[in-house]
Specification:
Elements lengths: L1 H6 L1 E4 L7 E4 L1 H4 L2 H15 L6 E5 L3 H12 L2 E5 L9 E8 L2 E8 L8 E9 L3 H11 L5 E9 L14 E7 L1
Parallel strand pairs: 3-4, 3-7, 7-8, 8-9
Antiparallel strand pairs: 1-2, 5-6
């Protein structure tokens, strides 16, 4: 993981003053780093019977798609309203700076599915908690939660459901 950490770029005052943003685009563009992330993510769930990976817009699409391909699972995008073409279900949730909404296709998850919900970074946990509740409303067999980076000082983990296994590759 030290190699991956060396490729993460800190962007000062983004998206607002006082924030140090952990930019993973510098990880994704590095072939070795991308391979390591791909391998390490997939090893967490290789024996879990995963059938679907839900990736949260937008950086969660990258790691989520990679994880789905590595596991031979389907990929489901969790998007902002109005971006998905068919019948959707949605959930509203609170973020640091107001409310937001995410949605998925109503037929994306079935009761036979075992799901990993993936996003790039765990900060406060609001978006992931909402995605979890959205997926859970479709009654899959099991739900796992996954991040590439967890920023523990922001206290996101306690905001996540206690009945889901939560994994992060890197914890700051």
């Amino acid at each position: 993981m030290e190699y991956i950490k060396s490729k993460i770029r800190d962007v000062i005052d983004f998206p607002s003053k006082g924030v140090i943003f952990k930019d993973l685009t510098t990880v994704f563009k590095d072939p070795r780093a991308l391979h390591i992330i791909s391998w390490d993510l997939s090893q967490l769930y290789r024996d879990k019977g995963i059938t679907k990976v839900v990736g949260i817009e937008s950086r969660g699409f990258i790691g989520g798609s990679i994880l789905a391909a590595e596991l031979g699972a389907g990929f489901v995008p969790a998007r902002k309203p109005g971006k998905l073409p068919a019948d959707t279900i949605s959930i509203s949730y609170d973020k640091e700076y107001g409310k937001d909404v995410i949605e998925i296709h109503r037929d994306a998850i079935t009761p036979d599915d075992i799901v990993v919900i993936h996003d790039d970074v765990l900060a406060t946990g609001g978006t992931m908690a909402a995605a979890y509740n959205l997926v859970k409303s479709l009654n899959p067999k099991k739900i796992y939660i996954n991040f590439i980076i967890e920023i523990s000082a922001l206290g996101g983990r306690p905001n996540l459901p206690q009945d889901a296994q939560v994994d992060s590759l890197i914890v700051y």
